[in-house]
Amino acid sequence: MRRRLILPELDLPHVTVSMWLVGRGQRVTAGERVVEVLADGVTVDLPAPVSGVLVRQCVGEDDPVVVGQVLGEIEAEI
Do the Cβ atoms of 59 and 35 come closer than 8 Å? Predict the structure, then answer.
């Protein structure tokens, strides 16, 4: 089952994807840092919600994103 990696509420107006820490096709564990976002000079690491494989990156580095936007998808381990 695929789970979405969604940008949570950060209370910061301008957010961009700074860097993907895990590449497409790579295995992740729940809680592992997957993507780094930058918001008004503050770097925030977003963790994987589940263990599995990152199957899709929906946005690229330096792309602006908004709260609730899907950043990627993880094929969850059963």
Answer: no
